[in-house]
Amino acid sequence: MQDDLFGDAAPPPPPTPPGKPDAPASESPVPRRRRADDVRPAAHGPELAALATALPARLRLGSSSWSYPGWAGIVWDDHPYTDATLSKHGLTAYGQHPLLRSVCIDRSFYRPLTEAQFERYAAQVPDDFRFVVKAPALVTDAQVRGEDGKGRQPNPAFLDPALAVSEFITPALAGLGDKVGALVFQLSPLPFVQLQRLPLLLERLRTMLRALPDVRSATPDGVVAVEVRDPEWLSPTVAPQLAAVLKETGATYCLGLHAKMPRLAEQLPLLRALWPGPMVCRWNLNPLHGAYGYEDAQREYGPYDRIHDVDADTRALLVRTACGITGAGQNAYITISNKAEGCAPLSARALAEGVSAHLAQRPGA
Asked: Which of 16, 92, 129, 280 can bridge 182 by disulfide, Cβ–Cβ 3.0-4.6 Å?
C-alpha cells in the first residue's frame, strides 16, 4: 500500500549560520543538505527517448505505485531515497521517465481518496499522463476483512451504487480531470457462497454500473473497468453474461494477470466480446509463484532493481494485443507490478521494445 503522498511539506532548511570572524575570505561555503522532497529523475539518454517516440500515442505503460528505492538509476538518480520519501515526493520524477505515461494508484483501494488528493496527483505529471485508479474495497470487497486479510463478516456496502459514486467516481473525475485513464472496480475474491450466486451478483453489478456518471463522455480517455479475482467469472456460462453487463453500461473488462486467474490468452475472449473498446490490463504476478505466491515474489524480487523471471508468453501476447488495439484507434493501458518479472520499469521497457519491433515489421513501416 502506498504511503500518504500528501503529508506535511518538508520544513525549509535552517538559515546558514554566519561565518566566524576570523574565517578566511576564500573558505568555501558549506553545501546545503538536499531537501527531502527533492527527488530527481535518472538521466535518460537519447535511445530511451527515441523508443518512446516510436510507440503509439494511445499506448500508456506504467507501474503499480512508484515508491521503490531499488529503481535508482532506472527511474530516480542514484541518491539513496527511502520508500517513504519516494511515496510522498517521487511522482514528478516518475512522470519524467519517457516510457512511463501512466501509473496505477493502489492506495485508493484501502481508503477512499478525496478530490484534493487526486488533484495533487494530477498536478505532478505531464498533460498526456493518465492514471489507472482502483476503487475502494469499501464497495468492491464482499467481505469486511481483518488486519490479517481474512474475511470477518459480509460487507453491507458491497457494490453500493451511491458509495461508488460519492467515494470514488466523483472525487476522481473532479480531481484528476482530463488525466483520468481507467477507474477500476477490482472485485476481490468472493466467499464460496457468493460464487454460487454469480447471476445475482451480476445484477447488482449492473445496477451499480448504471448509476455511475458517464466517464467516457466526461474525459478524453477515461473508462470504467471491472477486474475479477475468481476464475468462475470467466466460465462459459458466466462470461457472456458479464460481457453483456459491461457492454450495456459502457464499461470494459480489466485483464487481471494474476496467478489466481487464467492466463492472458484465456481472458482475451471477454475483451473481444466488448470490441470496439479500450484495453485495460494490470500485470500483477508471475505465474511461477502460484496462486498465493505474492509474498514469495516480494521476497525474491526485492529491491526490484532487475528482471528476475521473464514471462515471455505474456510479453509477446501483450505486445500483439496492444498493437492491434491502438492500431484500431483505441486506448491501451498496461500497468505492471514489480511482482510480474522483478522490476516494473524494466518490464515496461521490454514491452516498449517489443511493440516498436512489431510495428517495424508491418508492411509499409
From this structure: 280
Is-contact 259 290, C-beta < 8 A?
yes
For 95-121, write each residue's pLDDT tens digit. Answer: 999 999 999 999 999 999 999 999 999
Q: What would the grid cell of residue 141 be?
A: 470487497
Rounded to the nearest angstrom, the gap between the alpha carbon of residue 160 and the centroid of all alpha carbons in its chain is: 23
Task: Residue 260: count other Cβ atoms within 10 Å of its Cβ.
Answer: 18
Three-class SS state of 103: strand
pLDDT digits (tens, 9 = 90+) for 226-276: 999 999 999 999 999 999 999 999 999 999 999 889 999 999 999 999 999
347: which 3 cell numbers?
518490464
357/174 Cα distance (integer angstroms): 38
C-alpha cell at position 231: 476464475
Tell me how far apart the alpha carbons of residues 130 and 208 are, in angstroms, rounded to a whole number: 24
116 by Cβ neighbours in 10 Å (0-12 / 13-18 / 19+) ranks as exposed
Report which residue type is found at 8. D
